[in-house]
Amino acid sequence: QVQLVESGGGLVQAGGSLRLSCEASVNIFSINDMGWYRQPPGKQRDLVARIAHNGNTTYADAVKGRFTISRDNAENTVNLQINNLKSEDTAVYYCNARRVRFDGFYEYWGQGTQVTVSS
Known about the structure:
Elements: E1 4-7, E2 10-13, E3 18-24, E4 33-39, E5 46-52, E6 57-59, E7 67-72, E8 77-82, E9 91-101, E10 104-109, E11 113-118
Parallel strand pairs: 2-11
Antiparallel strand pairs: 1-3, 3-8, 4-5, 4-9, 5-6, 7-8, 9-10, 9-11
């Protein structure tokens, strides 16, 4: 079982920055990849960024150039740096972890952290 705890959300003005953190309850070397998703009000949850065990990253087109995902293996955290925030970035941001073990594929979610961008 993997617990994920997000932090760093809040209310910020358009053009500002935030840094979201996701702390895992296990050594993230044991997790195949981790990512951030977001769910705007009334919409579905979509991928924002993902970082694999080898450090390879994937970003949604809407956030390329503004969002940066990174891993801190010593702290068992995955961070999401968000710059030049826009109103359309308003959403609940969720941390996600995917783990392949001998007995199957496992996926875990955090409880979410709210990001609200004011214009």
